[in-house]
Amino acid sequence: MLKFFKSLYLNQRFYYAIFTIALLFLFSYFIEFLYGFTWVLSLILLLLFGSDLISLYRKNQVSAERILPQKLSNSDENEVEIMVENKYRFSINVEIIDEIPIQFQKRDFLKKIKIEAATTERFSYYLRPVTRGEYFYGKLNIYVFTNIGLVKKRLVFGNQQMLKVYPSFIQMKQLDFLAIDNRLSQPGLKKIRRIGHTMEFEQIKEYVPGDDVRTINWKASAKQGELMVNQFQDERAQPIYSIIDTGRVMKMPFNGLSLLDYAINSSLAFSNIALKKKDKVGLISFSAKIESILKANAKLSQLQQIMERLYNINTKFPDSDFSMLYSNLRKSVSQRSLMMLYTNFEHISALKRQLPYLKAINKKHVLVVIFFENTELDKIIASCPDNTTDMAHQVIAEGFAHQKKLMAAELRKHSINTLLTRPEELSINTINKYLEIKARGIL
Prior knowledge:
The protein is 39% helix and 28% strand. By secondary structure, the protein is α/β, with parallel strands linked by helices. It folds into 3 domains: 1-166, Immunoglobulin-like (Sandwich), CATH 2.60.40.10; 169-193 and 235-440, von Willebrand factor, type A domain (Rossmann fold); 196-232, no CATH class. The strands form 6 sheets. It has a 6-stranded mixed sheet, with helices on both faces. Helix 4 (169-181) runs parallel beside helix 6 (259-276) and helix 10 (375-382) packs across helix 11. It starts with a helix and ends with a helix. The model is unreliable at 181-186 (pLDDT under 50).
């Protein structure tokens, strides 16, 4: 009985009908013939209420299911599907309230649909997470009522479900598709092929001006009667590490995502491309100490290991220790490698404090320092100031933007590869930088 009362809800239509009958009884005090008419209406309402109640509670004739993906992709639109089946012999109206994870702060979810007799309805909605980690779904609440609409029956489906939000694997797949098929629908993405000079032979071709004369194949030239040259492929399986700074500088948010999330999404997409290029990829995260080291490997399972390491990384509030990073790289990475360092500097003095360690890392490895433009400053710089205060803000913003360019120039002066990029263009620019380094044979 308690379960019955917990599932029973009175619809608004019922309250409107009761209010109307109460008014009619009030007016019947002055108009006598309304008294009998109102009692007839009351009897009809009672019959309709009983009929509605019996129709809904005769048997549980509704089933529902929430269909979730195995994992969610951070910063992307993820589809969630709900299926509701009506086993009644009449059409029903359904209100659906899904208990969405608290991270979305979406407390007004309500979907109303009408389902015909003996049919199934499906609908989807989309969620865009902006933080990685574990998300918990609550129950799926279904409120069913007939066309009479006096009472509702509440049905609850599904237990608590946990979903992991991983770095943006959707973006990874999109960039993988573009890089392999050379379908450049995203501006700025390019695919570079370099003729290598390593010992990995590819083919013999005719000599053209500009080819390295050291690669002339004299035997093939004698047979063909013209100069022929050996063509080699780039060296494969080179070790490449994504080094992610998780210090306080990476906490800064842009468009709902922190710089750390942009770096994580980029490193996943970049690692996928590097694996496709037959290189070995690894991962290092650090702040005041080394938090995680994943040795470079060319196995396909390496991408899943990288994803598992990345999905639960969070920013730390202490300043990052680059001296400790250099010391650990000397011990743990013996082979010359490409180091893609995701960090951020807001002032040139902060860069100069870390510059000796960056130079030391670059001496043994190929270091690419990746840091971010402050796109919020662009809005201030592009605005038209109306008063002295706004003008002062614009001048300060221009100063900070100029500092970023000075930092990039300072790093290049010391032969350190540099990538200064907008956060939303990070993945494409990082992949392009990797392809450029491969094409130039720097590694």
